[in-house]
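Hello forum,

I keep getting stuck at the same step: I have a sequence, I want structure tokens, and every attempt I make locally crashes halfway through. Rather than fight my setup again tonight, could one of you with a working pipeline run this one for me? It's a single chain of 468 residues.
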Amino acid sequence: MRGFHIRRFLKGFVVEMGSWLLLRESLLIIMAPDLRSRLEELVPLQRERLKEIKKNYGKVSLGDTTVDMAIGGMRGINGLLWEASLLDPDEGIRFRGFSLPECQAKLPAAKEGGEPLPEGFLWLLLTGEVPTKEQVDTVTADLRSRSKVPGHVFDVINAFPVTAHPMTQLTAGVMALQTESEFAKAYETGIHKTKYWEPIYEDAMNLIARLPEVAAFIYCRTYKGGVLHEADPNMDYAANFAQMLGFQDELMHELMRLYISIHSDHEGGNVSAHTVHLVGSALSDPYLSFAAGMNGLAGPLHGLANQEVLRWLQELVAQVGGDVSRKQLSEYVYKTLKSGKVVPGFGHAVLRNTDPRYMCQREFALKHLPNDPMFKMVSDLFEVVPPILLEGGKVKNPYPNVDAHSGVLLQYFGLTEQNFYTVLFGVARALGVLSQLIWDRALGLPIERPKSMTFEYIENYCESKFAA
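Reply #2:
Ran it on my machine without issues. Output:
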């Protein structure tokens, strides 16, 4: 009751002063267990856990490595510690042990029965714990307090022509933010390695907080004639991002919450995640590391897949028409395959079943836009494509992945500028890769240095094995 009376008194005082919102945010940070304090409790425990793993299992083999694996993109090689998430070939992604449906059920939402708040995902990714709504509110308030972007960042972006790719502008903006790095300053003046994670945490949280405004600025200058939309201090992270992009529709806010959450992490082996980890292992600060990861995300084989899906669908409509039967869809799929192309949005390097990120987007569409023609086409493809891909006998996963659906949802709500989609992906992916980067430094993980080989080395090594 004492806490209630304190809050009641302060609320009355602040309402009288006309600043209840600002004090409410301050109170949330002071009175609720905050994220950094929880990490301070967890770091020593996880350091001891790592010591025990190295002591008890340090010499245990994690599996054989073949030549095919080494020269085939290192697929299937277990060689990276990544706590934030784990990708199971059959079940799909698990965030700290929780499946996507479990996250949707357990993590706090902005409204009853709504999509989970990305701030809750951030807490989960960093701590491994499901937060309370009060704890999520402290993260929202903390990110809001860190969100002001220095003016020189906009000057750097404005130096680019508006025709520059949005990802080029994003990485430049992130590099411009690097002048604010707390870790770079701390390392310059001298800091004990056991404390590295603390300024890394500050950098990571500042970067996550500022990315939405940087991304929205890029969107508005590139596509909307430079007309900017003010941030709304009453909104959560994802809703405010959508607001700054110019979308006031509450359903679009819900979609943005879903989009950021499901794209936040996908274990550590993908290009962008691995790049952030690799560059960070050299003690590059989060800004340098994240910018490097975003340059990887900009590659056509990583972050552009949902654009390719949309283009393929638009070509289908242009050639066949909007009212397409399943027979016509099948014929178009066969035509695509016979031309030597793949059907975009189907298959995955690791997954062997339908991507659960696809399924939760499908459920969102069934709930909110069941009669949309493009969604109906995507639903029909869900039934048509897998059996055709299985006919060849070579495809390990004929099922749709996350990219088969995300572009269609964004188009429906009016975000039609496809070159911007990778920027959205980048804003979302920051939550996972920067969470892991904090733990990389907290655990004292070393600089990454795998062994490379030449043709001659491989040939001589294999021949000696055969001779033996």
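Confidence is low (pLDDT under 50) at residues 1-18, 24-31. If your local run keeps crashing, start a new thread with the error log.
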